[in-house]
């Protein structure tokens, strides 16, 4: 699970105030950020829709925006706004520079110049270089079809070994939040590293943009864990099974973080199309418990919890309690229904009930999914069907480091540990 701390990956839906229609999309997005920087949260709330006034009142907006310096350091100058179009919306992306890293504000405006989406996320990495011309695999576009007439397909990339197939294949399933196909976190691309590392060893890998990333406008109201993750993962597995270059008897799923928590559920919905599961940094406890733990870990890294930080923690605890009891409440603009569904998932039982072999991987420096989860997996999955690999130096992204891990570490470039990728390849090739 990516660190969906308040303000790091929080989707807020806003509308413009009267009189803004004549301004450019970039000016409208900039006005919103100016209001937040000035602390004019009531003015921002006054421009919200009726629904969002209830979901994101001024005090909640204040908590989100003012938590950023505690996590990212002092704010610097913003970067240049860039405007594009997608699905009938104008999308404005504005880089936000902080002492400890970069974020970007992504503002979506509809045809009436209303602000239809506001997302704060890690800054986008530069496009990845294409594989070397002498690589023993290539990459090709692959569309994951929508599983319903009203759901558009999702853009993806299939890393395919060169030579004669059919090849065994892996579908990569993201952690929480709006993830791109590489699961980019600052300059790091864990899914790109895994895909190319496995493809170089003769294993095809499909990675795709998560629906909350590709179609954020589809998540403005209530939605389920299946809308966000399960349905598209099943569609990806099904599409691979009918691809001529892929061996349909050897299709596997690798779930990272929340993707690992839902791996057993995805296997059940795939109805026999999967041959095994790889769970990488997968939670075994409720995500809301982990969210509270992560925030406490982060604010305590400097050995001191300020009054403001304590207030943030208390507000988060209250918000967690609210979504646990009320399906209409929202946390990080995600409906209570979604959180309550996640609470009901028993990931260990789901993997066990799938009857599939499983490989479990865990980093020893992971502060998002910790040893308590790892021990639960080891206690809950017994027998020759399951294999466990623990890597003391790795963080939540599978990247090696030293000392206590933190969000700032994710802003430093690195690569997924080659030993872990080799262990995955070895396990996949050993399956009958």
3D architecture notes:
It is a single chain. The chain folds into two domains: 11-122, Roll (Nuclear Transport Factor 2, Chain: A), CATH 3.10.450; 137-287 and 335-430, Alpha/Beta hydrolase fold, catalytic domain (Rossmann fold, 3-Layer(aba) Sandwich). The chain has helices at residues 25-37, 41-46, 50-55, 58-72, 190-199, 211-214, 225-241, 258-261, 263-269, 287-299, 307-325, 336-344, 347-354, 371-380, 407-410, 418-430, and strands at 11-12, 75-78, 82-86, 89-98, 101-109, 115-122, 137-144, 154-161, 167-173, 204-208, 246-256, 276-280, 330-331, 334-335, 358-363, 386-391. It is an alpha/beta fold and 432 residues long. Helix 10 runs antiparallel to helix 11. The protein is 37% helix and 23% strand.
Note the main attributes of this structure.
23% strand; Nuclear Transport Factor 2, Chain: A; eight-stranded mixed sheet; alpha/beta; 432 residues; disordered N terminus; 16 strands; single chain
Quick summary:
With 432 residues, this protein is an alpha/beta fold.
Q: Helix and strand layout, with pairings?
A:
Layout: E1 11-12, H1 25-37, H2 41-46, H3 50-55, H4 58-72, E2 75-78, E3 82-86, E4 89-98, E5 101-109, E6 115-122, E7 137-144, E8 154-161, E9 167-173, H5 190-199, E10 204-208, H6 211-214, H7 225-241, E11 246-256, H8 258-261, H9 263-269, E12 276-280, H10 287-299, H11 307-325, E13 330-331, E14 334-335, H12 336-344, H13 347-354, E15 358-363, H14 371-380, E16 386-391, H15 407-410, H16 418-430
């Amino acid at each position: 699970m990516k660190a969906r701390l308040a303000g790091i990956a929080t989707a807020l839906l806003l509308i413009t105030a009267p009189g803004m229609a004549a301004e450019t999309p970039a000016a409208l997005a900039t006005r919103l950020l100016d209001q937040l920087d000035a602390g004019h949260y009531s003015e921002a709330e006054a421009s919200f829709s009726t629904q969002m006034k209830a979901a994101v009142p001024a005090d909640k907006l204040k908590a989100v925006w003012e938590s950023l310096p505690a996590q990212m350091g002092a704010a610097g100058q913003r970067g240049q706004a860039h405007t594009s179009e997608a699905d009938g919306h104008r999308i404005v992306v504005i880089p936000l520079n902080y002492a400890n890293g970069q974020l970007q504000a992504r503002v979506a405006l509809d045809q009436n110049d209303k602000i239809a989406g506001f997302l704060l996320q890690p800054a986008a990495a530069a496009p990845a270089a294409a594989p070397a011309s002498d690589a023993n695999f290539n990459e090709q576009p692959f569309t994951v079809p929508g599983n319903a007439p009203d759901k558009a397909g999702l853009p993806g990339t299939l890393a395919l070994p060169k030579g004669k197939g059919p090849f065994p294949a892996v579908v990569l399933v993201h952690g929480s939040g709006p993830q791109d196909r590489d699961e980019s976190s600052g300059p790091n691309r864990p899914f790109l590293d895994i895909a190319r590392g496995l493809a170089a060893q003769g294993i095809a890998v499909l990675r795709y943009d998560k629906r909350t990333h590709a179609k954020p406008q589809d998540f403005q109201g209530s939605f389920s864990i299946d809308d966000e993750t399960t349905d598209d993962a099943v569609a990806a597995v099904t599409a691979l099974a009918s691809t001529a270059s892929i061996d349909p008897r050897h299709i596997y799923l690798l779930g990272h973080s929340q993707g690992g928590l839902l791996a057993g559920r995805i296997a059940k919905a795939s109805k026999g199309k999967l041959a095994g599961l790889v769970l990488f940094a997968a939670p075994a406890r409720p995500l809301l418990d982990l969210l509270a733990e992560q925030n406490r870990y982060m604010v305590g890294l400097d050995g001191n919890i300020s009054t403001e930080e304590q207030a943030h923690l208390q507000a988060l605890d209250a918000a967690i309690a609210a979504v646990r009891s009320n399906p209409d409440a929202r946390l990080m603009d995600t409906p209570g229904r979604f959180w309550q569904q996640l609470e009901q998932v028993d990931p260990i039982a789901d993997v066990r009930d799938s009857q599939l072999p499983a490989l479990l991987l865990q980093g020893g420096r992971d502060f998002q999914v910790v040893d308590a989860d790892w021990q639960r997996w080891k206690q809950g999955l017994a027998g020759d069907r399951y294999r466990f690999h623990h890597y003391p130096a790795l963080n939540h992204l599978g990247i090696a480091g030293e000392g206590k891990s933190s969000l700032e570490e994710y802003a430093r470039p690195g690569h997924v540990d080659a030993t872990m990728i080799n262990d995955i390849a070895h396990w996949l090739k050993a399956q009958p």
